[in-house]
């Protein structure tokens, strides 16, 4: 049973590393700020969660798993909020390319304040 958990842990670690690498490459390759912001949050958080699951499966101690769980909770709580605030600030500063937006929910929102 221990060997199976180690293989699953290794697979989670490799997949998490690949997702984090793809997020880093996307930060360089994507054309605009909103696309880069998406690449910095979605695959990066999923990659971190997979890496944390792999570490938890490998360590198998209550203290370690609790610490990894806290890291996961704080990451899930802060990354989406930070991305939302960065995206909203970029939109208000005129850094978002309007030709790439499919739906513009914030159009005219500044007038309602």
Automatic annotation (TrEMBL):
UniProt keyword annotations, A-Z: Membrane, Transmembrane, Transmembrane helix
Q: Which organism is it from?
A: Paractinoplanes hotanensis
Name the UniProt record assigns to this protein = Monovalent cation/H(+) antiporter subunit G
What the entry lists under InterPro entries is as follows: PhaG_MnhG_YufB
**Family to which the UniProt record says this protein belongs:** Belongs to the CPA3 antiporters (TC 2.A.63) subunit G family.
List the transmembrane segments: 6-28, 65-87
State whether keyword Transmembrane applies.
yes
A Pfam family cross-referenced in the UniProt record is: PhaG_MnhG_YufB
- Note the superkingdom of the native organism: Bacteria
Transmembrane: present as a keyword of the record?
A: yes
